[in-house]
Amino acid sequence: MAGEMARDLSSHRPVILIVGGGYVGLYTALRLQKKLSRGRAEIVVVDPQPHMTYQPFLPEAAAGSVEPRHVVVPLRRTLRHCRVITGAVTGLSHAEKRAHVAPVEGTPFTLTYDILVMAAGSVARTLPIPGLAEHGVGFKNVGEAIYLRNHVLSRLDAASSTDDPAVRTRALTFTFVGGGYAGVEAFAELEDMARYAIERYYPRLSPSDMRWVLVEAMGRILPEVDLDMAAWTVKQLSARGMDIKLNTRLESVSDDAVVRLSDGEEFSSETLVWTAGTKPNPMLAETDLPVDARGRIECEATLQVKGMADAWAAGDLAAVPDLTKDDPGATTAPNAQHAVRQAKRLADNIVAVLAGHQPVPYAHKYAGSVASLGLHKGVAQVYGVKLKGWPAWFMHRSYHVSRVPTFNRKARVVGDWTLASLFPREVVSLGQLQDPRREFVFAANTGRAGHLPPTRTDPQAALPKTGS
């Protein structure tokens, strides 16, 4: 099959279409442009955003330890020998080798390709909970991280500027739903930042005035580590006064920001962050690719789509057999560790097939997980070794800076950490970012910009309109 494909493409310059510019898309394109000589193939990358987001650093970006621009990698600068299209693939027919592309602006068009790489990733997995869409915010992109940082700090400003106890309670109650790594890291990093700010710059407030609530439907958090490590993490967070609610679900959020939980508790909270899992990109429903019961593309161990020699997939949307486990039905977990390694294997396999060789199956035993719980605090379990506190936090930083694409971004992140160790944290809320035109519109309509009334931040107004 590999030889037939190589002969079919030998007569013309093949077009390799990569749908998505996240972990899999970027790393695959990087390796292909390095291994394929100029002119041997045209590599086209399509993504709604012109950058790749390194998601493990989003909590640190939200907490101010890393500059938000440094956790994103610009696609055009990095993929100099690829064609980058800022837009969305709205559907495709692999039988016809045609993809329907909707650019950010302009008329949608059809793109013809020879080889397909599906790397569109995942989106937030939400539930039909009343009020969630109106009041919740996710934590998957840099826009949401910037918004949450400004929002949390603005709530401290609001609480410090009033004597109304109801307003204070509502402003200083922060609710997170989902106890996986993304949720726990965001929860812990933002609390650490808020505590730092209150202790130094808000004399009218005390850390005990805040309430941080983590809601998890399962009986534990951090399913990626052993139960004793998860229990230790709960104990550490609880010691900081944070409320961990296990075996509890979010039932609803009212128009006046009252959160109702399955255990019967109700409380006011102006901050609701949803990190309760992900699901494969729903655009797969508009393709003719085979999917399993969970909506993932069915793949061979070589990362080829089942029954399609010239279609490949990896990452969150791919059901890739896990050859390191005895269970024949096991698939690799949807995390960055597998996505980065799968991308490299996928690119090497495409190069091999184009040369008439056979693709190599993907096999990687899960190394473990690392998580930051705030500055100098962390938890890690790597190759069976369990670390807590500062050693785990250091391992978290060391591992992830080694995985950030390009030397440019590695250097900038390390530079951010170095400066942060020498100077106090920046804990100012840039509220204008939430609605930058508001003051100008008010001034243009009334001519009285100086009398612009303050408003509470609106998460829906601040969210980016497209996502990768």
Mean pLDDT: 90
The N- and C-terminal alpha carbons lie at a distance of: 33 Å
The portion of residues assigned to helices is 25-40%
Main sheet? 7 strands, mixed
Please provide a written account of the structure.
Helix 2 (23-35) packs parallel to helix 10 and helix 6 (142-160) packs parallel to helix 8 (181-201). This protein has helices spanning 2-9, 23-35, 58-63, 75-78, 132-135, 142-160, 165-171, 181-201, 227-239, 336-354, 390-403, 407-422, 438-446, 459-462, and strands at 15-19, 42-47, 51-53, 72-74, 83-93, 98-103, 109-112, 115-118, 122-124, 173-177, 211-215, 243-245, 250-253, 258-261, 266-268, 271-274, 278-280, 297-298, 311-313, 318-319, 368-372, 378-382, 385-388. It has a seven-stranded mixed sheet, covered by helices on one side. Strands 12-11-10-16 form a four-stranded parallel sheet. Strands 13-14-15 form a three-stranded antiparallel sheet. The two termini are 33 Å apart. It is 34% helix and 21% strand.
Give a short synopsis of this structure.
The protein has 468 residues and is an alpha/beta fold.
